[in-house]
Amino acid sequence: MIDFQETIEFKKDFKKLFKKYKTLKKDFDDLKNKYLNLFPQGNGTKHWNSLHKNESFEIYKVRMHCDSTKGKFFRVIYAYHKKTNTIELIEFIEIYFKGNKANEDKGRIKKYINTF
Known about the structure:
It is a single chain. The protein has 116 residues and is an alpha+beta fold. The chain has one domain (2-114): YaeB-like fold, CATH 3.30.2310. The chain is 30% helix and 34% strand. The protein contains 3 helices and 5 strands; from the N terminus they run βααββββα. It has a 5-stranded mixed β-sheet. The longest helix is centred in the N-terminal third of the chain and has 13 residues, at 8-20. The mean pLDDT is 90.
């Protein structure tokens, strides 16, 4: 079973984007339920990129479809923590629309890594 959590920064990003992209909540729920629950470390497609790995967790960037963007994608940055064989944690770090921002916030990811 995977437990999903969000950083404070992620919550702020999401709230701001949701005002403009009304299907974002549904699309994000689809990402969690249809993909991350089954493939927390990616499914081997070009939609997933590994950004960092250590003994405690791995950080991934995944491309997320959003109906409101008419074929364009959001990017979601998350940390996958494998705690035990039965309980896992995914903590969302950042979400952004590729049309508004070229790349992830490397400073935010570095700050997240340094908290462990």
